[in-house]
Design brief:
Blueprint (H helix, E strand, L loop, with lengths): L2 H9 L15 H11 L3 H7 L4 E3 L3 E2 L12 E2 L5 E6 L4 E7 L8 H5 L9 E2 L3 H7 L4 E3 L11 H9 L1 H10 L1 H26 L5 E5 L12 H21 L3 E5 L8 H6 L4 E3 L10 H8 L4 E6 L4 H4 L2 H15 L5 E5 L9 H13 L3
Parallel strand pairs: 1-7, 8-9, 9-10, 10-11, 11-12
Antiparallel strand pairs: 2-6, 3-4, 4-5
């Protein structure tokens, strides 16, 4: 059984020969793991028995600005600055291009990104390099490629985006229209160019916080459910499956996700309120496949290697029983996680058998 067959079997709620495995981590952890095993990135994926591969179209659009203070702009016009410490490397947003916008016309006239800024001509060839693996659009390994809600908070700034959703619906709806058009066009171009060889769209749009939803269910249904449904239907129309990434406590939205046709939910943040894997499997396991669930916030950095092994066994036993589970960390593994814990995590998953 190859990786793609294994993943699709689990997706169809059947138990494959072993649990399908994925890997995602910060640059610092990935480099440390490669150094430990004396291999490169793809060699590391092989050693960890990772069943997923990612294809990323090349950006060929206008040159992206960079300021002398280190601020780097993306193709949305959002500015980010790198923060490097002894143990980590991360970026934070320091410029939101619509933070001063006050009218719908300003939003409408903004220089929104276009799909012709990307070269999709090599997509099928990229997929062919990963024959036998489950192939995903950007995001399943690489950081970035965020959804509509994320982009609103980046474009307007978190405070203004949340305020406008409540008090300036017209501006928000205009911005959503442009963001969603780009995302739909981007994924459709990818799917067309890949000629049926992409298995998953990975769509990242956090709706949950540690203890509750970031926005009300009604606000989700009003602003974001229609765009999510459009992307789920788009993936389905090309024989692919959308994986929705939403951190935090999102249990109250899961019935809505299922109703709109979602089949895979990520990252199953077990340290968030009410995200107990037994409850999730019992309530939704016949309709959803779960991706993630090995907690990066508390479990991986603070447990012993022996404890990690038991947690991995328990997680696979619960979520993987009868299929419907892709093994992974619940987010990118952070630099505060000891390598021995990561090694214990993957060795246990690779060797686990029911």
């Amino acid at each position: 059984m190859n990786s793609r067959e294994r993943v699709l079997m689990a997706l169809n709620h059947q138990e494959p020969d072993r649990i399908p495995i994925n890997f995602r981590a910060t640059d610092v952890i990935t480099q440390a793991m490669c150094k430990h095993y004396q291999t490169d990135y793809y060699g590391l994926l092989e050693l960890l028995k990772c069943d997923f591969r990612e294809v990323v179209p090349e950006y060929v659009g206008p040159e992206l600005k960079k300021y002398d203070d280190g601020t780097q702009f993306d193709y949305w016009g959002v500015g980010r600055k790198e923060l490097v410490t002894e143990r980590s490397r991360d970026v934070y947003i320091n410029y939101s291009p619509l933070s001063e916008a006050n009218t719908v016309e300003e939003v409408k006239k903004y220089n929104w990104p276009r799909v012709d800024w990307f070269d999709f001509s090599k997509m099928e060839a990229m997929c062919d390099k990963f024959t036998g693996y489950a192939i995903s659009s950007p995001g399943i390994h690489v950081e970035g490629y965020h959804g509509v809600f994320h982009q609103l908070t980046y474009m307007f700034g978190m405070e203004k985006a949340m305020l406008y959703m409540a008090m300036n619906e017209e501006m928000i709806e205009e911005a959503i229209k442009h963001i969603n058009k780009f995302l739909v066009d981007f994924y459709e171009k990818m799917l067309q160019a890949a000629n049926g060889k992409i298995d998953f769209i990975f769509y990242k749009d956090d709706y949950g916080s540690q203890n509750s939803l970031l926005i009300s269910r009604n606000m989700f249904l009003k602003y974001f459910a229609p765009t999510l449904k459009e992307l789920i239907d788009l993936a389905d129309s090309y024989g692919a499956t959308l994986i929705l990434h939403s951190c935090g406590s999102v249990i109250d939205l899961i019935p809505d996700f299922i109703e709109m046709g979602l089949k895979v939910l990520d990252p199953i943040q077990t340290s968030a309120k009410n995200m107990d894997i037994r409850v999730l499997k019992e309530r939704f396991g016949d309709k959803l496949t779960f991706h993630g669930a090995i907690d990066t916030q508390v479990t991986l950095p603070r447990s012993s290697a022996a404890e990690i092994k038991e947690i991995v066994k328990e997680t696979i036993n619960v979520l993987g029983k009868g299929g419907g589970y892709f093994f992974s960390s619940s987010h990118r593994i952070q630099p505060d996680t000891p390598l021995e814990n990561i090694i214990a995590m993957y060795e246990t998953a690779i060797n686990f058998r029911y």
